[in-house]
Amino acid sequence: MERLDRVLSAAGYGRREAKGLIAQGRVQVDGAVVTRAEAKCPQDAVVRVDGAALERGSIYLMLHKPAGVVSATQDDRERTVLDLLPQDLRRRGLFPVGRLDKDATGLLLLTDDGALAHRLLSPRKHVDKTYLVTVAGALEEADRAALAAGLVLGDGLRCLPARLEIAGPSAGLLTIQEGKFHQVKRMMACLGKPVTSLKRVSMGPLTLDEGLEPGQWRPLTPAELSILRES
Ligand code: URA
């Protein structure tokens, strides 16, 4: 048995939001309205918020993707990001939210929550993704300006404006709001500065936990999950 407000928090609602929803009589447990946040909720109870059943038991993992594995659920030849998880988790229908190239590293969210993944990946939502990028050649103010204006790639693809924060002669933090195939590599190649390494450091409100070594993962904290849901 778990407190009802904690059940809502585990599903991604902020603590204050959860308490408010319960107090307003918008939460039902097995069909009955419950208005006490501290009421105990059985593990197998169906909890509804405004009539919509809560996804209890969805899994949300933050992975520091290492180089050399592919962002797929299965692959005939390559190791996948799911191969980094223990056996019991591999059977839970998890998938990566978006892709990182085989040679790219950094933040990858793994979940079985299709609705949340869909929201994060929807091109219409313009979710920020920030990459630490190093390039061959020196990054210059002209590169920052060209990215901010919106590049048009050689194949005609018109990119949304992107933010470049130059962090060293050949390094920068690049924030983009789309996720086309090899997008960052193609953008930097278009500027004549091919990418030599690429690490995703954030996606929407989620920031890579620098305590995670490449290949390590951990569940999202309730705070991360609620901020992700609220964003
Ligand atoms: N852009 C790329 O080019 N590669 C990635 O893995 C992610 C963004």
Computed structural class: alpha+beta
Main β sheet profile:
9 strands, mixed
Tell me the name of the CATH homologous superfamily of the largest domain: Pseudouridine synthase I, catalytic domain, N-terminal subdomain
Query: What is the CATH level 1 assignment of the largest domain?
Result: Alpha Beta
Helix content: 10-25%
Q: Give the terminus-to-terminus CA distance.
A: 29 Å
Q: How large is the count of helical segments? A: 7
Tell me, what's the shape?
Answer: elongated
The low-pLDDT segments are none
Summarize the helix and strand pattern as letters.
Answer: EHHEEEEEEHEEHEHEEHEEEH
- Radius of gyration of CA atoms, rounded to a whole number: 21 Å
Molecular structure report:
Strand 11 (163-168) and strand 12 form a beta hairpin. The mean pLDDT is 92. The chain has three domains: 2-53, RNA-binding S4 domain (Structural Genomics Hypothetical 15.5 Kd Protein In mrcA-pckA Intergenic Region, Chain A, Roll); 60-123 and 205-230, Alpha-Beta Plaits (2-Layer Sandwich); 128-203, Alpha-Beta Plaits. The strands form three sheets. Strands 7, 8, 9, 10, 11, 12, 13, 14 and 15 form a nine-stranded mixed beta sheet that branches. A four-stranded antiparallel beta sheet has the order 3-2-5-6. Strands 1-4 form a two-stranded antiparallel ribbon. It has helices at 4-10, 15-23, 87-90, 114-121, 141-149, 183-190, 222-230; strands spanning 2-3, 27-29, 32-33, 40-41, 47-49, 52-53, 60-65, 95-96, 105-111, 129-135, 163-168, 171-176, 195-203, 206-207, 217-219. Helix 1 (4-10) packs across helix 2. The two termini are 29 Å apart. It is of the alpha+beta class and 231 residues long. The protein is built from seven helices and 15 strands. Uracil binds next to helix 6.
